[in-house]
Amino acid sequence: MATFPTRKVMLKNGTILTIRVPRMQDARSLVEYINQVSTESDNLSFGEGEAPFTEEMEKQYISSLEVDPHKIMAVGEIDNELMAVSDISASSLPRMRYSGELGLSLKKKYWNIGVGQALLEYLIDWAKTDGNLKKINLHVKESNHAGIHLYKKLGFVEEGRVSRGMFIDGKFFDLVCMGLKL
Ligand SMILES: CC(C)(COP(=O)(O)OP(=O)(O)OC[C@H]1O[C@@H](n2cnc3c(N)ncnc32)[C@H](O)[C@@H]1OP(=O)(O)O)[C@@H](O)C(=O)NCCC(=O)NCCS
To answer: Which residues line ligand 1 (CB under 6 A)?
Structure first.
């Protein structure tokens, strides 16, 4: 992962969001963050108590980012609170490494004030200058209307669907496949 400059963005409500690469000392906050967002959304791939991440695992992941050219990750902070995480992860296989899978989440109390858009713009700018990535892919739950709206707004197009992509409380949900050519 090459590094990318820290960015400050004024959100719709006037709050200042800081977007930056993660540091080793974020590991504990990342575990607390994951535990919180897992209770706040049914649109993630894990629910309450289902995320198997420890502080040690987060440290190893952050450390791997420093040497892995196929991954980029950015966190969002408001008033020193780590409240958003986004990443793009690509395969290291030569035939597959030009495209990466995007992940994005934030704490519920910050939804709908422009954090998601700011993080996506940061990652897209980074991916464009990085040069390794030529395409960003993502899978979004069919009922995640805010997510689909946001991705379309940033230029992603629907490319297909994965039927029965998610299973929550006895019900299957399709995943919409979306992509952005860089
Ligand atoms: C999806 C998510 C990342 C969006 O982040 P966010 O910071 O709220 O996004 P933004 O505020 O930048 O933009 C949200 C947009 O969706 C719109 N929106 C909100 N609810 C909507 C709905 N029900 N239908 C359509 N659009 C909706 C907002 O009006 C806004 O659009 P606008 O800027 O054109 O007015 C955030 O809600 C989240 O973390 N959800 C839980 C995890 C998740 O779903 N992650 C994505 C997995 S693929």
So the answer is: 41, 43-44, 104-106, 111-117, 138, 140, 144-147, 149-150, 153
